[in-house]
UniProtKB/TrEMBL annotation:
Keywords: Transferase. This is Protein N-acetyltransferase, RimJ/RimL family. SUPFAM superfamilies: Acyl-CoA N-acyltransferases (Nat) (SSF55729). The lineage of its organism: Bacteria, Bacillati, Actinomycetota, Actinomycetes, Kitasatosporales. One of its GO terms (molecular function) is acyltransferase activity, transferring groups other than amino-acyl groups. It comes from Actinacidiphila glaucinigra. Residues 12-168 form the N-acetyltransferase domain. PANTHER family: BLL6696 PROTEIN (PTHR43610), N-ACETYLTRANSFERASE DOMAIN-CONTAINING PROTEIN (PTHR43610:SF1). InterPro entries: Acyl_CoA_acyltransferase, GNAT_dom. Gene3D superfamilies: 3.40.630.30.
Length: 210
């Protein structure tokens, strides 16, 4: 199971999610819900507490590492994100040239970044870009993963565009993948960044934030 960590940049700080974040996240989620049609964002305190509890259960099992996202300039919570679907290969193949991060049961081999939502006031700002840069940097440079997956409801054009802007490469549509937030059967659009692509993706993200 990976250790909890604080990831901080100029715009955001990703803090290990805890029950103490409940009220702050509820305020963030209540700004406006116009962009949450395809995203699970709790509406009331009971739902938010349950959302956090379930995320922490996933963390305890080693499957996820959830964060609360804080705007460091305003010192307010603006949303949540997490590593999820963490997988630990017991017999990883040979590392590419120049990569020799040792494997251990505490270090994922592949990961996904998802369950991301931001308050309305934080959308279309540098916050999401920097949060993704912090997460990708930790995944590739600290854990040494082979791949980071990103996925979203295939209908969510806003989310798909955001993933493409940060450098995710479209892999395809997984049809009838899961139950959607609106209760329909969801097709999921899959994207990824692999280790060989990471230096270019990192440079592009840093340039966007400059």
């Amino acid at each position: 199971m990976p250790e909890s960590v604080i990831l901080e940049g100029r715009h955001v700080r990703l803090e290990p999610l805890s029950a103490a974040h409940t009220d702050g996240l509820l305020r963030a989620a209540g700004e406006s819900r116009d962009t949450y049609a395809y995203t699970k964002v709790p509406e009331d305190r009971e739902a938010m507490a349950r959302y956090i509890e379930e995320a922490l259960q996933d963390q305890a099992s080693g499957a996820a590492l959830p964060f609360a996202v804080r705007d460091v300039r305003r010192e307010v919570l603006i949303g949540s994100t997490r590593f999820l679907d963490l997988d630990y290969w017991t017999a990883a193949p040979a590392w590419p040239a120049g990569r020799s991060v040792p494997r251990s049961g505490a270090v994922p081999t592949v990961a996904e970044i998802g369950s991301t939502w931001l308050a309305a006031s934080a959308q279309r700002t540098p916050c999401n870009t920097e949060a993704k840069l912090l997460l990708l940097t930790h995944a590739f440079d600290v854990w040494g993963v082979f791949r980071v997956t990103l996925k979203t409801d295939a209908r969510n054009a806003r989310s798909r565009s955001a993933i493409e802007r940060i450098g995710g490469r479209f892999e395809g549509i997984r049809r009838a993948h899961t139950l959607a937030v609106d209760g329909t059967v969801r097709d999921s659009a899959y994207y990824s960044v692999v280790a060989e692509e990471w230096p270019g993706v990192r440079a592009a993200l840093e340039a966007r934030l400059a």
